[in-house]
């Protein structure tokens, strides 16, 4: 009887709390984001009406892109692919370059964070190459590989290095010295210190670097594909602009933005699963 009474009280309290929180959740999750999107659409509509010969209005763009939206994975001959296939091609390049960059950057970050000589040797190199535009590496990549696809992956690889290296090194160097001293007192082997103390403490920094690297990589792939051509969402943007088909360009911009949002969300969810703590930093 007492348990049933407690459950009833909890149910009443929960319902009352939800009634108080519901308007806030509705405002923050639904109303305000919807108003923001509506504002962008209204702005687009006004600009389109002022330049109607070149720019379509939102309803006109929607009608013009219905085939891409309803059939994203069509194949109608060589080079005539749906936007879904183009997006997958770009994602493949980005993920390959990003993963290769993470495999190299995380160990380098640990080395720099744990060794002062390594930091003194590698930090000048990082500071020199970090400000270089990713597209500046494209001619070098084309000269090395002589193919567009591996060159694009190489540019993404270079792009993904610096934020992950810097954030990993920062996380490793920020581990409390008290933890390391206790590990030394316990005569814990170095590899065990890394796996049991340094790595768990550094994971939030590492994931921050990974999220920044992935966001930059997704930005860069569009520009790289515009220059190299072939199959990809970046070349699609350039090709449609060459045809003065701004309706498809607007669709591509929306697809690129939503894909970048989903990529960041996915890495954030992986971070929560690995670190078992909520994320506080987003791109």
Task: Please tell me how large the radius of gyration is.
Answer: 25 Å
Cα distance spanning the termini: 51 Å
Q: List low-pLDDT spans.
A: none
Described by strand count, sense and barrel closure, the largest sheet is: none
Secondary-structure-based class equals mainly alpha
Structure description:
- The chain is 81% helix and 0% strand.
- It contains eleven helices and no strands.
- Helix 9 packs parallel to helix 10 (233-242).
- It starts with a helix and ends in an 8-residue tail after the last helix.
- The mean pLDDT is 83.
Structure at a glance:
This protein has 11 helices and no strands.
Which properties best describe this structure?
11 helices, mainly alpha
Q: Topology of this structure?
A:
Blueprint: H1 2-50, H2 58-64, H3 66-70, H4 83-114, H5 116-129, H6 138-145, H7 148-173, H8 177-185, H9 190-228, H10 233-242, H11 246-275
Helix pairs in contact: 2-11, 4-5, 4-7, 4-9, 6-7, 7-9, 9-10, 9-11, 10-11
């Amino acid at each position: 009887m007492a348990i049933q009474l407690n459950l009833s009280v909890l149910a009443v309290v929960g319902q009352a709390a939800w009634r108080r929180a519901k308007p806030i959740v509705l405002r923050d999750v639904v109303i305000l984001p919807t108003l923001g999107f509506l504002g962008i659409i209204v702005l687009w509509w006004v600009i389109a009406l002022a330049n109607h010969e070149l720019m379509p209005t939102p309803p006109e763009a929607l009608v013009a892109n219905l085939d891409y939206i309803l059939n994203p994975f069509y194949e109608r001959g060589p080079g005539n692919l749906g936007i879904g296939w183009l997006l997958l091609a770009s994602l493949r390049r980005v993920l390959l370059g990003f993963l290769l960059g993470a495999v190299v950057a995380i160990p380098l970050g640990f080395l720099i964070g744990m060794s002062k000589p390594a930091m003194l040797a590698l930090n000048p190199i990082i500071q020199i190459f970090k400000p270089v535009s990713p597209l500046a590496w494209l001619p070098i990549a084309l000269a090395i590989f002589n193919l567009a696809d591996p060159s694009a992956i190489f540019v993404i690889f270079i792009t993904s290095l610096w934020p992950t290296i810097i954030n990993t090194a920062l996380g490793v160097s920020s581990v409390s010295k008290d933890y390391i001293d206790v590990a030394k007192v316990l005569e814990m082997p170095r590899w065990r210190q890394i796996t049991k103390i340094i790595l768990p403490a550094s994971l939030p920094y590492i994931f921050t670097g990974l999220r920044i690297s992935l966001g930059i990589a997704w930005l860069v792939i569009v520009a790289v594909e515009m220059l190299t051509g072939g199959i990809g969402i970046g070349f699609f943007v350039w090709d449609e602009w060459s045809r003065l088909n701004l309706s498809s360009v607007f669709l591509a911009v929306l697809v690129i933005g939503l894909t970048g949002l989903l990529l960041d969300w996915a890495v954030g969810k992986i971070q929560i699963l690995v670190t078992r703590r909520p994320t506080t930093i987003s791109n």
